[in-house]
Amino acid sequence: MHESVMKAWWDSSHMAGGNAAYVEELYEAYLEDPQSVSEEWRSTFDKLPKVDGVSIETRHSVVRDEFKKMAAMGLAARAPVAAAGEVGDQKQIKVLQLINAYRFRGHQHANLDPLGLWQQERVRDLELSHHSLSEQDFDTVFNLGSYAVGQEKMPLGELFKSLNRTYCGSIGAEYMHITNTEQKRWIQQYLEAAEAKPALTKEQKVNVLKGLIAADGMEKYLGAKFPGAKRFSLEGGDSLVPMVKALISGAGAAGSKEVVIGMAHRGRLNLLVNVLGKNPSVLFDEFSGLHDESLGSGDVKYHAGYSSDFATPGGPVHLALAFNPSHLEIVNPVVMGSVRARLDRRGCSDGSMSLPITIHGDSAIAGQGVVQETFNMSQTRGFQVGGTVRIVVNNQVGFTTSKTEDTRSTQYCTDIAKMVQAPIFHVNADDPEAVIFVSQMALDYRNTFKRDVVIDLVCYRRHGHNEADEPNATQPLMYQKIKKHPVPRQIYADQLVAEGTVTAHEVEKLISEYRAALDHGACVVEEWRPMTEHSVDWTPYIGHDWDVPYDASLSLDTLKQLGEKVCEIPEGFKLQSRVNKLYADRLSMMKGEKPLDWGAAETLAYATLLAEKTDIRFTGQDAGRGTFFHRHAVMHNQLDAAEHIPLQHIAEEQGVFEIYDSVLSEEAVMAFEFGYATAEPGTLTIWEAQFGDFANGAQVVIDQFLSSGEHKWGRLCGLTLLLPHGYEGQGPEHSSARLERFLQLCADHNWQVCVPSTPAQVYNMLRRQAVRPMRRPLIVMSPKSLLRHPQAVSSLEELASGVFHNVIDEIDDINPAKVKRVVMCSGKVYYDLLDYRRKNEIEDIAIVRIEQLYPFPHDEVEKMVERYKHVKDWIWCQEEPQNQGAWYCSQHHFWDSIPEGAKVTYAGRAASSAPAVGYLSVHNQQQKKLVEEALELNKD
Length: 940
Prior knowledge:
This protein has 4 domains: 2-118, no CATH class; 207-529, 3-Layer(aba) Sandwich (Rossmann fold), CATH 3.40.50.970; 556-800, Rossmann fold; 807-939, Multifunctional 2-oxoglutarate metabolism enzyme, C-terminal domain (Rossmann fold). Helices cover 39% and strands 13% of the residues. It has 32 helices and 25 strands. The strands form 5 sheets. A 9-stranded mixed sheet has the order 3-9-10-8-7-4-6-5-11. Strands 15-12-16-17-19-18-23 form a 7-stranded mixed sheet, sandwiched between helices. A 5-stranded mixed sheet has the order 20-22-21-24-25, with helices on both faces. The longest helix is centred in the N-terminal third of the chain and has 24 residues, at 202-225. It is elongated. Mean pLDDT is 89; it is low at 1-18, 51-56 and 70-84. GO terms for molecular function: oxoglutarate dehydrogenase (succinyl-transferring) activity; thiamine pyrophosphate binding.
């Protein structure tokens, strides 16, 4: 009987589980300020457990257990609400629950859609009746708990209005999914204290109006002057212009020196002119078909990037708008990589010196996987940039598809951001003051917590996907509404006129002045400044061709000293047995007791560059140890899992060496490294694939940035890709790095494609990439079995020469005059051919290695051919199927190189739709056959 009575008392008590929110609200208020709660509650909280006599914040589970004990003992005094009685007690709890409901779900009733077409579901949690409250309670004063409106108590009627202004106005805030209490409280206080409305001065309001006038005026001008031309108009999302300007100004005021922007097509031309300060006359010339003929192929206007400086209260800020292909979201990791490079250059580890802003489309951010990859990277060691401000220009229609059930499976297009607990601020683009408030809050949040934040700018698209489309064909109701809807500039101007901030005459004057500025063709951005803040000088790397002189040689003593230095193991540092043997062997190699293997030579390349104060950045899914257990640049203590990186300790003054095992991504990570390399020419930037064919997942980066970025945009980039390649019987996906795809993209000397076959070659290739003052991508078909092949070794003397050999002639003692056939090849197959020839004592076939397939080394090949001018039988031997590898894409080079009257034939696998077979026995048969075909003369 006693237990049932106590249970009933606990269930009906204000401290029961159903009222936990009320107790926790009071307790959190007590923690912040003990005087903010009544004396009775303060006494109750004072009795909670202490540690070592010191009052601290106790886990909520402990607090709840303590209250249960108190209730069971009849000690939980109900005095704090006794005056109100049982009904008053329950209603106080319901009021706090109502506040919590608005924090959680207020965004679902917010006025976000300028067109009023959104049909949001009814949210019962936001109704008074759901909480057993009504308008009859409006005059009753309740405690507000942690509701940060600036007072402890308020009549329910006023509170209800305040909640709706804060959470259901033009801003819909999603942040209660965040688990970090400090971050949630920060957002609550920011929103609630101002009721989600900024206190703007007259000057600030006029500046916002100017931004809207510029956005609207630019589009109207282009539409009239170039009717029907594609421009991907911003009309409907005009608030983006004052928003971005506010972010830049705020970033500068907070100490940022650089802002890097990545965006898709829509609104790009508008931002170029109205934010970055591109001269309108230059844009108009582009519309008229005029262009700079020195810029290779060039690109369409709405892919173009731009750089300038922008005046802010904190001084000039350098702006960079990234070049962007039509694969829209791929620019996001590129921007992050560029920002990381700028931060590293400035020695900034928290992101405060450089701000990334990425601007997305609503369908694109929800639809493209690279967005998830980029969010996933945002807090990792190797890729964090102190948070990115992500803006979604939410037109509510993707191309021609407006049904959300066709474009995504979530309520909002921004739900993907919840994976990293980013706050999401939806805002009605027709309320520019709300847009400015959200911009300030987003920037302050990013700068405070160094995390991503998302702004969902809910707007509309006044025209079709481009200006030649007819949107009424697919969205008739939406476009009937849009046709009658006033532009944002008009809405805000009318508001300011009504409140007396400006007069109608002043508005017309501002419109006329902007139109006149466009007619004049001069820069229309008051904050534009000539560039002085750009933190890198590309001059030393511009205008060089492949034959630019360089000296990468080093003395043997220097090599030995550095080699021994990178083999030093800290005292008490216990290595895993295989790694310990690797370092013991490596030390023997550095002392000249053994020839160098691949890992030793590669490590020496990095050590020498670091000693010369060249920075190195190295990423990949298994970069630290190397997928095939050869690198082990990162040591792991078997006793406590501590890490030690010898390459970071070779000299007191050396280059920075960073190596990171990346997230399990190819596309976003490679794009990040491309962005890094385009912003930092002095760093040797390397991305390594776990297996070469994994680069398939980053094909868009390879196609649209690496291979063509210089030709389209004039963007130099020294990114190096290490792509393990070689037929070892491991099946279709672990054999080929798709060499043929890279060769197919070769033109205009756009990059280098190399297949090094010795440790000395990889050493000198990597040094050449850094020492030579030319910055173009390096694509390396790196090996697997050659990492430990007994014949794939080199001497320190070969390394010291500092020369990468594009062509390696016959190395055995074969008389050129007796040669009847020359076999040309690249990569691992060379050692199979060499083995077979030696075992069969063949003396009339020479084997030549082409180590650089592009740019094809015609001069070196011509010198080699001089020794075999009498040979008419030339063969290209490869492991890849005939339709893959180098044969189809490079045979024209082979034909150009051989003696007159000679012929080139193919030895290798037959054409195949798959890169390799999946059965080891079949692989071995094929390998044996292609070697025999290349080397047995009697089979002609």
